[in-house]
Specification:
- The protein has 276 residues and is an alpha+beta fold.
- The protein has helices at residues 15-18, 25-31, 68-76, 118-127, 142-152, 159-176, 215-221; strands at 3-13, 44-48, 56-60, 78-86, 102-104, 107-115, 183-190, 195-201, 210-212, 236-239, 250-252, 257-262, 265-270.
- The protein has a 7-stranded antiparallel beta sheet.
- It is globular, with a radius of gyration of 18 Å.
- The model has no long low-confidence stretch (mean pLDDT 90).
């Protein structure tokens, strides 16, 4: 499937997290270590918050490892909150509008996983979306429909409750169609102020998701580590798989968990799908 990462903290140049880590997201696009399929070459995207309220996007269908524009952009753009995603299609077209992150006003959304039997369920899922939101959908992926289902059920007011409603709707529609385990997801989400994440699957066997330990704690453990000196004290990251081989730097997000990341740590709560 896909790989993604998200950063929150003091503003840094994007390539500090995208290109200069020991196991960068760009490396993972070619050879992921903890994915069922190691290659994620069906496009990529970066979304970042800058001077305006809404995020900026750079999305292309080229593989991330083969894009010189990405390297130039990442070496110059600074942001304190950004997301990046490398895509492996689960059946929908390789096109720019299907590349993550997806955006709606000030909200940004990335996803790793799939809706099982999506072609069979797609019409009912689309019909469950608020008609006023439907014209904003640009692509054909299950991921984007999940985002707009959550928007339909109050994402802008209560993000985790809306995602629980979205998951419950997908599972109900899947169950009605005879699909026992319809949903697999790790989700990254931001409104420009908060960085949030969810790890969940219908079969309780979700794709991996981690968040970073506090930089101060890591500097105490590894005072001579060259990379840690370049990272701000309040930096936190959420990733599909660790960006380094330092195992103590990464905390695995438990199954069925929603996470809000801040400089002080990760605040988690159980994630339980609930029909609206």
């Amino acid at each position: 499937m896909c790989r993604w990462m998200a950063y929150s903290g003091s503003a840094i140049v994007l390539d500090e997290m995208l290109l200069k880590t020991e196991i960068s997201l760009i490396d993972q696009s070619l050879s992921a270590r903890r994915a069922l399929e190691p290659t994620n070459g069906d496009g990529f995207g970066i979304g970042w918050y800058g001077r305006g309220k809404n995020p900026c996007l750079y999305r292309v269908i080229r593989p991330a490892w083969n894009d010189e524009n990405l390297r130039d952009l990442a070496a110059e753009v600074e942001s304190g909150l950004f997301m990046a995603h490398v895509r492996r299609s689960t059946g929908t077209a390789v096109q720019r509008s299907n590349c993550h992150p997806f955006r709606y006003n000030n909200w940004m959304f990335v996803h790793n996983g799939a809706i099982a039997g999506f072609r069979q369920l797609k019409r009912q899922l689309v019909m469950a979306i608020d008609p006023a939101l439907y014209p904003e959908i640009g692509g054909s992926t299950d991921s984007e429909l999940m985002f707009f289902l959550a928007l339909t059920h109050g994402l802008e007011e209560d993000p985790f409750s809306a995602l629980e409603a979205m998951a419950a709707i997908v599972e109900r529609i899947g169950a009605d169609a005879g699909i026992p385990h319809p949903l697999q997801m790790s989700i990254g989400l931001s409104d420009g102020e908060r960085l949030m994440a969810v790890r969940y699957s219908s079969e309780n066997d979700s794709r991996t998701l981690f968040y970073s330990e506090r930089i101060d704690a890591l500097r105490e453990l590894y005072p001579s580590h060259p990379r840690l000196a370049a990272i701000p004290r309040d930096a936190r990251a959420v990733v599909s798989e660790p960006l380094s081989d330092v195992s103590s730097a990464w905390i695995e997000v438990p199954e069925s968990t929603a996470l809000t990341v801040s400089a002080g740590g990760g605040d988690s709560r159980p994630f339980t799908p609930r029909l609206p």
